[in-house]
From TrEMBL:
<dbReference type="GO" id="GO:0008053">
    <property type="term" value="P:mitochondrial fusion"/>
</dbReference>
<keyword id="KW-0812">Transmembrane</keyword>
<dbReference type="GO" id="GO:0097192">
    <property type="term" value="P:extrinsic apoptotic signaling pathway in absence of ligand"/>
</dbReference>
<dbReference type="Pfam" id="PF00452">
    <property type="entry name" value="Bcl-2"/>
</dbReference>
<dbReference type="GO" id="GO:0051400">
    <property type="term" value="F:BH domain binding"/>
</dbReference>
<dbReference type="InterPro" id="IPR026298">
    <property type="entry name" value="Bcl-2_fam"/>
</dbReference>
<dbReference type="InterPro" id="IPR036834">
    <property type="entry name" value="Bcl-2-like_sf"/>
</dbReference>
<dbReference type="GO" id="GO:0042981">
    <property type="term" value="P:regulation of apoptotic process"/>
</dbReference>
<dbReference type="GO" id="GO:0001836">
    <property type="term" value="P:release of cytochrome c from mitochondria"/>
</dbReference>
<feature type="domain" description="Bcl-2 Bcl-2 homology region 1-3">
    <location>
        <begin position="60"/>
        <end position="156"/>
    </location>
</feature>
<feature type="transmembrane region" description="Helical">
    <location>
        <begin position="179"/>
        <end position="199"/>
    </location>
</feature>
<protein>
    <submittedName>
        <fullName>Apoptosis regulator BAX-like isoform X1</fullName>
    </submittedName>
</protein>
<dbReference type="GO" id="GO:0008630">
    <property type="term" value="P:intrinsic apoptotic signaling pathway in response to DNA damage"/>
</dbReference>
<dbReference type="GO" id="GO:0015267">
    <property type="term" value="F:channel activity"/>
</dbReference>
<dbReference type="GO" id="GO:0005741">
    <property type="term" value="C:mitochondrial outer membrane"/>
</dbReference>
<dbReference type="InterPro" id="IPR002475">
    <property type="entry name" value="Bcl2-like"/>
</dbReference>
<keyword id="KW-0472">Membrane</keyword>
Length: 201
């Protein structure tokens, strides 16, 4: 059952998550260098939605960190930031590449992560107005190409288990000194998933 049945909106959660990921990437950039993003993405209506977006944001960052070492993705992000032609067409090409083997929760996380990294690159390239474009393009792509799939697969509530597996796989490749962090993260994830599951019943 998608989130709409329990007072939450999969559309609202997705749009807020995109904004959250972009804002997280820009957290170390002075605020005067970033245009306001609020009018472009809806605001969450409940504390439950806020908790879900926060938890998903953590998982998106962990899953997306796998892309850091993918030179093809990094080149594509750099290409969008530096292209003189249509940045929308370049963004769409990267989005299509993310989903070339189909839509999965992990691929959705990667797209949101790429949007955040791209927003940071554009600010670093002194094109802060383009951050709003990235947010609106990602939201548009989400609405047109991903929202239906998310609803058909039970809503964001059902993303937790798949994203948890992808997150653990991502961090399990770290050195053994980080296994404690993996365990702490996994325990928090399980508790958060249980709380979310209880809310959804």
């Amino acid at each position: 059952m998608a989130c709409e049945g329990n007072g939450m909106s999969d559309a609202r959660i997705g749009e807020a998550l995109i904004k959250e990921v972009i804002q997280e990437e820009l957290k170390d950039v002075p605020s005067e260098e970033i245009p306001p993003l609020t009018p472009l993405a809806v605001e969450l209506k409940t504390e439950q939605e806020r908790k879900i977006v926060t938890q998903l944001g953590i998982m998106v960052r962990i899953v997306g960190d796998k892309v850091k070492d993918d030179q093809e993705f990094q080149d594509a992000i750099d290409g969008i930031a530096s292209c003189s032609g249509s940045k929308w067409e370049s963004f769409k090409a990267v989005a299509d590449k993310v989903f070339e083997h189909g839509i999965t929760w992990e691929n959705i996380a990667v797209l949101f992560y790429v949007a955040g990294k791209l927003a940071l690159k554009l600010v670093e390239a002194h094109l802060p107005q383009s951050v709003r474009d990235i947010l609106s393009w990602t939201v548009e792509f989400f609405r047109n190409n991903l929202l239906g799939w998310i609803r058909d697969h039970g809503g964001w509530i059902n993303s937790f288990s798949d994203l948890a597996v992808a997150s653990v796989q991502s961090v399990s490749s770290m050195s053994s000194s980080n296994y404690g962090l993996v365990l702490i993260f996994s325990a928090g994830l399980l508790i958060g998933s249980f709380i979310t599951w209880r809310f959804s019943r």
